[in-house]
Design a protein that fits this description.
heterodimer; A: alpha+beta; PmbA/TldD fold; 2 domains; seven-stranded antiparallel β-sheet; B: alpha+beta; six-stranded antiparallel β-sheet; 11 helices
């Protein structure tokens, strides 16, 4: 990818060396994670280069255990002096915290044995000028789509690649490479009658360059999404059905992931405590988490603790079958890890999704809209009005008002409110339009009733 | 006070000649301006839950960002290696946008500016507070929160510190550095009663010494406030839905200003004319009662800085004066392109990101009303005193912010607590509906983090008690 930057490296020898130094300092267990990556990003605006960013970065994280005490550290400085200091600091931090009865590495027997090739890496190298040309094409398609597209927040094209290495004192060593190619376009349109402006955006992202959609299709979709917002108005306060488009339904699945994380559950910060085995959605709802989907954005051969990733049914025909757990949160709940340890360098693991998706149904989005006499089609949500403890939900929204099964006019400056527990039980239709543009994906869904606050 | 550039240079293991030579590589013919930003950052965090301090994390990052601007173009590269060779690669990348022949003449550093003030002096740097002391503080918080009420079932607390050394060298010949401490103490309580579980959160911080948290047992106040809010929420009723008058309490509810007008007045959006405020300079955007400033010069505040990340001293900028839009907040690139004053608001998350115009501490000046009279003036409405996060769409001006502690006002009296609800409005309109401003200006406790373009920076807000005649409240009780 990024021309001119040195290639990413394999740091497994460095990691093994650090593990043995930690042991010498008295650590009973330890693990090391090293991430090395490159990225090249170009932003153009109104057909000229606006911003060019290029970088290589690396980071090393060390976690040590002194019996049941543990601490984590990280650094970007790989010099011998810095790493010696890191080992010493980590060990003294670990001695300063309290004993935690369930802390510790996973059992060695549980470590991932296989290293499936998940097709996460594409070696295509694109030069700076190619990045610029692709971003310009995407923006041009948006600017040329309609005279009302009057301005632009720009278009960008990015490529990145990276290498992740994890090793622990039980003898696990694993690594994998990945890449990503993405572009986005953010046009601004002006309403000729009122002068009011609207902005929206569209994007594409793939592990492999050859699979990326054309810049023209991304640009024209961005223009379409922006233009359709012109003339938006408020609607009266009411209760009505709400259809969430792919992206917004995906945000609800993101909220579901948050509530299913083992950490949220054992800390009491989840509205799904004690729901394992219970019906939390209608029969039409089946949700999967698949860590080994080829080319997936959440795919990896092993998780953040070196355990094998797997494909699991999280919700099976409405019944909650599995949480998202790493070793620690699993032990807190008396359950085994589900291979969902996610890890940022220098942090202890947390639990999160891999490729998390709602299995598509049969209805087309158009059929779903036709099923609504009076209601809301939600295409944007803003703000953070979600209480994960209770599931109470209240967010700013924009989209379209539905009258007699047709999109009647765009709406904005409204909120939609409900409770996530009830919203999942109230999913009345699941669309057939599942597409992955990230690790969490959903088809369009219809929720029976939400409170809409407007004028 | 740490403004000795030579000492900071030593920190980064570089000589002045190497800096001058790198600036020479990037300052080619068509580059208007370039800078090198060096940063060392030590972050530490301890956290507790279930009555024990289980987690301790420490991270060190160091690197340099090289930026060149030519017209509206910005070239940027960064490196976590500070060798001469890595800096040169970065400089050659950054100058790519100018498409000029290679340069090479070193750029002399003519003024080694010494900052004339220190907004965050400390006898003991925050980085030297022992882990054991941090752990003790969290243990005391746990005990205090549980003592508040037996219905408090879990206490989560964290103490985070950051110690940042920065140095900026520019093609204007300036070299200037700063040492920027930052800390935050945060407490979350979970209350439970008959299967009803609720959460309360409170915290504070800034660029002060560790003793701040111990003065007048401030940490106990944080613990009790988090516990009080969790217990209060046990009896909260559904929030109303629809348009109604809303009274905002002082302090953190100033997030209204940050979302509704602050972002829209950042110079980059206005230069590109993509902000809902782009054509409103000199026009009325608020009622007479509203005067709003952005002020990066308040001692010890979370949003304050001796200098911004381009080396410009921070300042106090009047954004709205008696309801009239007066100015934008700027960084070097946008001030130059727009021909407007440089306000010292060029900020970046780290050496890995480019500077953007960003807020510091944004607040409304005190008015004349008695806060009690403001509440009494409302027949049916909402009184909101604490908020979670907010967000804005810069282009259409629609913003939201979500209440975490709010009450109904019925016939001039504050009555039942209500569940969290999101408020939504339009930036250029909402402040025209502010009919009363209290005399009780308060700044927030020091917990705000602002996100823009994927970059997070610490900020502050402030507000006196105000009355907004109408805004949409997004509860479930329609």
């Amino acid at each position: 990818m990024s021309n001119g930057l040195p290639a990413v490296q394999d740091y497994s020898q460095l990691a093994l060396d650090l593990l043995s130094r930690a042991k010498q300092c008295g650590a009973t267990e330890a693990d090391v994670m090293v991430v090395d990556g490159r990225n090249l990003s170009v932003q153009v605006r109104l057909s000229a280069v606006d911003r060019l960013t290029k970088a290589r970065e690396k980071r090393l994280g060390l976690r040590v255990f002194f019996g049941k005490r543990s601490a984590s550290t990280s650094t970007s400085d790989f010099s011998r002096t810095s790493l010696d200091q890191l080992v010493a600091d980590t060990c003294s931090l670990a001695r300063a915290v309290a004993e935690d009865p369930v802390s510790g590495l996973p059992a060695h027997e549980a470590s991932a044995k296989d290293r499936p090739d998940l097709d996460l890496y594409d070696a295509t190298e694109l030069g700076t000028d190619e990045h610029i040309a692709l971003a310009k094409r995407a923006e041009a398609a948006a600017l040329g789509a309609d005279p009302r597209v009057s301005n632009s927040e720009g278009a960008d094209f990015n490529s990145s690649d990276g290498h992740v290495m994890l090793a622990n004192s039980h003898g696990f060593v694993g690594d994998y490479r990945s890449s990503s190619f993405s572009m986005s376009v953010s046009p601004v349109a002006t309403d000729p009658s009122t002068g009011g402006m609207q902005r929206d955006s569209w994007y594409a992202i793939q592990r492999a360059y050859a699979r990326l959609e054309s810049p023209e299709s991304v640009g024209s979709e961005a223009a379409r999404r922006t233009l359709r917002r012109l003339g938006a108005r408020k609607v009266p306060t009411c209760k009505a059905p709400a259809i969430f488009d792919q992206e917004m339904a995906g945000s609800l699945l993101g909220n579901l992931c948050g509530a299913l994380s083992g950490y949220a559950l054992y800390k009491g910060v989840s509205f799904l405590i004690g729901q394992l085995g219970n019906k939390i959605a209608p029969e039409t709802v089946t949700v999967c988490d698949d860590g080994r989907m080829p080319r997936g954005f959440g795919s990896r051969p092993f998780d953040g603790e070196g355990l094998p990733t797997r494909k699991a049914l999280v919700i099976e025909r409405g019944v909650l079958r599995s949480y998202l757990l790493d070793t620690y949160s699993g032990r807190k709940l008396g359950l085994a890890s589900t291979g969902n340890a996610s890890r940022s360098v220098g942090e202890s693991p947390s639990a999160g999704p891999t490729n998390f998706f709602l299995v598509p149904g049969t209805a087309t989005p158009a059929e779903m809209i036709r099923s609504v006499k009076r209601g809301l089609y939600v295409t944007e949500l803003i703000g953070f009005g979600i209480n994960m403890v209770t599931g109470d939900y209240s967010r700013g929204a924009a989209g379209f008002w539905i009258e007699n099964g047709e999109l009647a006019y765009p709406v904005e400056e409204i909120t939609i409110a409900g409770n996530l527990k009830r919203m999942f039980l109230d999913i009345q239709m699941v669309g057939n339009d599942l597409e992955f543009r990230g690790r969490i994906a959903s088809p369009t869904i219809k929720i029976g009733e939400m409170t809409i606050a407007g004028n | 006070m740490a403004t000795k550039s030579s000492a900071e240079l030593a920190q980064f293991g570089l000589t002045e000649q190497e800096i001058q030579r790198t600036l020479g590589v990037v300052k080619v013919r068509d580059v208007d301006y370039a800078d090198l930003y060096f940063e060392f950052c030590l972050s530490e965090s301890v956290s507790m839950e279930e009555g024990i301090v289980k987690r301790a994390v420490k991270s060190v990052s160091q690197g340099a960002g090289v930026r060149a601007t030519a017209g509206e173009k910005t070239g940027f590269a960064y490196s976590d290696e500070l060798t001469k060779r890595d800096l040169e690669i970065a400089a050659n990348t950054a100058r790519y946008i100018a498409q000029s022949p290679q340069g090479g003449q070193p750029v002399p550093l003519t003024h080694r500016a010494k900052l004339t003030r220190d907004l965050y002096p400390a006898e003991t740097p925050i980085s030297e507070v022992a882990t054991a002391e941090r752990v003790d503080l969290l243990n005391l918080i746990d005990a205090e929160a549980r003592r508040y009420d037996p219905r408090i079932k879990n206490v989560m607390a964290s103490f985070n510190t950051e110690y940042k050394i920065v140095m900026v060298a520019t093609t204007e010949g300036q070299m200037v550095g700063d040492v920027q401490p930052l800390s935050r103490l945060q407490v979350t309580c979970i209350a439970e009663e008959n299967g009803n579980r609720q959460m309360g959160t409170f915290g504070g911080g800034g660029r002060m010494a560790f003793s701040y948290y111990q003065d007048q047992e401030r940490y106990k106040h944080y613990a009790r406030e988090a516990a009080r809010q969790a217990i209060l929420n046990l009896s909260a009723v559904d929030a109303p839905a629809g348009v109604m008058p809303v009274v905002l309490g002082g302090g953190w509810p100033g997030i209204l200003l940050h979302e509704a007008i602050g972002h829209g007045l950042e110079a980059d959006f206005n230069r590109r004319k993509t902000s809902a405020f782009s054509h409103l300079l000199g026009k009325r955007v608020a009622s007479d009662a509203c005067t709003i400033v952005d002020d990066g010069t308040l001692p010890f505040r979370r949003g304050s800085l001796n200098m911004d990340d381009e080396g410009t001293p921070t300042s106090r900028t009047v954004l709205i004066e008696k309801g009239i839009l007066r100015g934008y907040i700027t960084d070097k690139l946008n001030a130059r392109l727009m021909g407007i004053p440089l306000t010292g608001n060029g900020r970046r998350e780290s050496f890995q990101s480019i500077p953007l115009p960003r807020m510091t501490n944004t607040f409304m000046l005190a008015g004349e009303s008695d806060p009690q009279d403001i509440i009494r003036s409302v027949t049916h409405g909402l009184y909101a005193v604490s908020f979670g996060g907010g967000q804005v769409d810069i282009t259409n001006g629609k913003f939201v912010f979500s209440a975490s502690e709010a009450y109904l006002i019925e016939n001039g009296q504050v009555t039942k607590p209500v569940k969290g609800a999101t408020l939504i409005g339009s930036g250029p309109e909402v402040l025209t509906k502010v009919s009363m401003v209290g005399h009780d200006l308060m700044l927030d406790e020091g917990i705000g983090t602002c996100g823009k373009d994927g970059q997070s920076v610490p900020v502050g807000v402030g507000l006196p008690t105000i009355r907004i005649d109408e805004i949409t409240v997004g509860g479930t009780n329609g």
